[in-house]
Design goal:
Elements: H1 2-69, H2 71-78, H3 85-102, H4 112-135, H5 142-155, H6 160-175
Amino acid sequence: MQISNYLLEIVKFTLAGIGVIYVAFYLLKPYLDRAEKVQLMELKKTISNQTLPLRLQAYERIVLFVERVNPANMLIRLSGSAQSAAEMHSLVVTEIRNEFLHNISQQIYVSSRAWALVKRVKDDTLSVINNAVKALPETATALDLSKTVLAHLSHLQDNPYDIATNMIREDIEQLF
C-alpha cells in the first residue's frame, strides 16, 4: 500500500507540474508571439533599408533600357551615313539584345510585372524592326529602315515606350 500511495503522490505532483507549465506557457505565449513579430518587423525594415537603394537602381536601369531601345532614340544613336537597311537591322538587333543582356540581372530587384514589361518592350521592338526590314527592298538604306520604323510608331495611338516608363514609375511608387 505504501508504494501505491507513493506512486499516487508522484502522479499527482507530475500532473500538477504539467498543469503549471501548461498555464505558464499559454500566459507567456502572447508575449512571445508579439516579441517575435517585433523582431521580424525590425529584420524586414533592416533588409528593406539595405535593398531599397539596389531596387531603385534596378528600376533606373530598366527605365534607361526602355529609353535606349526606343527606336526614336536608338536609330538616331546608331545611324551611319552609308549603311544598308540589312546592316542597320543587324546592328539594331545586336544592340537591343546586348542592352537586354546587360540588364538581365535587374530582374532580381524589380517586380515580376516590371520585368515582364521589359521583356515585352524588347520583344515588341525586335518585332517592329524585323517587320520593317522585311517590308523594305534589299537595296534599302538605313535611312529607309529608320523612316519605316518611325512611321510605324507614329501611327500608334499611344507610344508604347512612354506607357512602359509610366508603368515602371507606378511600380516604383508602390515601394514607398
